[in-house]
Amino acid sequence: MTTPITAASWTYSEELVAEDEVLLGARARAEEVGVVPVSPGAGAALRFLAAVLDARAVVEIGTGTGVSGLWLLRGMRADGVLTSVDVEAEHQRLAKETFAEAGIPSQRVRAIPGAALDVLPRLTDGHYDLVLCDGDKLEYAAYLTAALRLLRPGGVVVFDNALWHDRVADPAKRDETTVAIRDLGREVAASEELVPVLLPVGDGLLAAKKIG
Fold first, then answer.
1. Which regions form coiled coils (predicted)?
2. Is residue 1 part of a domain?
């Protein structure tokens, strides 16, 4: 029988890959505008996935102030382009500040303001290596459908907040958001089109590779 991870071990794993001043500044801006970015551990996992995929084209749903975007860009190819979608144009402006401070060339980021479900249909089928979903949790199922269309064979879709503050694992929690995320996990796990994994970093990262 395995030993459950302790809070100390979770904290240790989250802090193993340290964030620099640029990411810390982006986190400070996120707090100012009420955005909750991915944790350092989740960010490190995203960079790892982008690097393993040698990602050239990535879609991010939920720009925030650029925390997750910068982690992704640092894992992508030097010529890779991040397409980031957010309903808040002000958040995207702050994210651009983050990317500029990190020395990311402007041509490597395509920021598109608007609702994800309005923007995603305009993106190219089968073109992307990775799709990160960190927008409206009630739209996660729709994001999955869109991601399967957008990803190339072997591409990866990732959902943040897959554990939703420890609520998903508790069957007694039946609020709409928790149920939506729980149902998404079951759908991904049961899909014959995907190879899934649930990583207990941050608030949970649900990742799945598209087969064929």
1. none
2. no
